[in-house]
Amino acid sequence: MTDIIIYVHDLRSSGVVRDAIRLADHCAERHRVTLVAGHGDGFFRDLAGQGRHDFVALCKGRRSPVAMKLHAALALRRWLAGRPAALIVSMGNMGHATPFLATLGARRHACVYRISNEIARGDGLRGALRTIWMKALIADAVSIPLVGAALARNPIFADALADGRAVEMRSGVDLAEARAKAAAPSPHVWLDEDVPVILAIGRLRPQKNHELLIAAMARLDRPARLVILGGGTDEERARYTRIATEAGLKADAFLLAGETDNVFAWLSRAKLFALPSRWEGSSVALIEAMAVGTPIVASTLAGDAREVLDHGRYGRLFDGDDPDALARAIEAQLSDGVIGPGDRALAYASPDDDYRALFETRIHQRFVERRSRNLWMKAR
């Protein structure tokens, strides 16, 4: 039995955090597992402490993003001191700096960095710095799971893919769990009424491109309601409420529904799931929609959405920055010509077994390398 530490930056509602909690519990069937949050605030705080794994929150209080990562890195380094050698799995791009800094010079621990968001975003200096940072992570990692086919196409990972350190991993969901949660009571009265509900899932951030969806909704020729599930600050909520109002969406047609621990109860009752993201790695929400049979409209910019939807066979794709194209796709999906997801979700079942097998392979390799090095030292 070997220690596995699964690290997340914080516990806000997101696919990364949900994946981390589920994976920690799955790996705990065979290993000592601790789920570590750099900052313990967030919607999933209670859920993080449940299950077979241990749970540790390193820091409290809010700081600037950079200060939060540095503070968490110092706390993680202190927490790791004196602990047995461990495989540290950093689950989300936002948190990778913390284990990277915390383990500098500490040869006892090995880091796995799960890359789940697009690297090449065409954003000038920030993009160049992101590339330099990614090269540092690649050099430090014993393994780099790349979530989705889109990320694996980035040439920055070519050498790591060739030597086996980088591995393409699919997104996925537990289909039985999805269908069981879909049977929960309706979470909102709109979902039980005749006006179709268009559902989007994601934090209120520019990446998710909610403003494009709002603009498209204002162009529809039929009544429809827009619901956005996802966390955001008061300022972000006020901004999107203002954008919706200026676009002409009335209060009875636009809802910022906040965070939830059961997206399937919403998805299974929505008329349509919309994914307008400017970039993604591989959208878990897209697969969650497929798992409960919800029709889909997705941006061609949203990571591997084209591959997941088999280039339009299992849902409609639209040009990623065109509100008119999105409006036309929504209209088509609300018509008799709707393209449903069929049984496509069967190809995207939970990847937890694949992750655990990957971790066990890396743990074994580390043991063999350490044992060989120790035997060589003794023979000198």
UniProtKB/TrEMBL annotation:
<protein>
    <submittedName>
        <fullName>Glycosyltransferase</fullName>
    </submittedName>
</protein>
<keyword id="KW-0808">Transferase</keyword>
<comment type="similarity">
    <text>Belongs to the glycosyltransferase group 1 family. Glycosyltransferase 4 subfamily.</text>
</comment>
<feature type="domain" description="Glycosyl transferase family 1">
    <location>
        <begin position="192"/>
        <end position="337"/>
    </location>
</feature>
<dbReference type="InterPro" id="IPR001296">
    <property type="entry name" value="Glyco_trans_1"/>
</dbReference>
<dbReference type="GO" id="GO:0016757">
    <property type="term" value="F:glycosyltransferase activity"/>
</dbReference>
<keyword id="KW-0328">Glycosyltransferase</keyword>
<dbReference type="Pfam" id="PF00534">
    <property type="entry name" value="Glycos_transf_1"/>
</dbReference>
